[in-house]
Design brief:
By secondary structure, the protein is mainly alpha-helical. The chain has a domain at about 15-95: Cytochrome c-like domain (Cytochrome Bc1 Complex, Chain D, domain 2). The chain has helices spanning about 1-25, 30, 50-60, 70-80, 80-95.
Amino acid sequence: MKLILMLTLSLLSYATSDMEQIYLKNACNSCHGMYAEGMGSAPRLQGRKEKVLLERLKDLQQGKTRTSAGAVMISFAKSLDKNQTIQMAKYLSTLKTVVAEDRYDEAYDPNDDGGS
């Protein structure tokens, strides 16, 4: 039983890692953000319902888009095979923004100019 659980978790981890690589390779993050949080006119995909994301990806693969700006997504969606489409919807639905707690310096030098 433990072996099956470990294998399942391992496969899920692999699929997530694989989808992350595809997300980055296709430069999805350049419009949708590192964690699919959405940027500018590019919508947030992070945490959306898996079913909705899957339907949207399938629509794009058929050339259906709701906006002229969405037309750029058609080629990206078409580059995914059936399994990747399912896994990408799952991956995006589980994404969360990760912010390192130590992203800011703890110490502040009042004699400094305060620049970055």
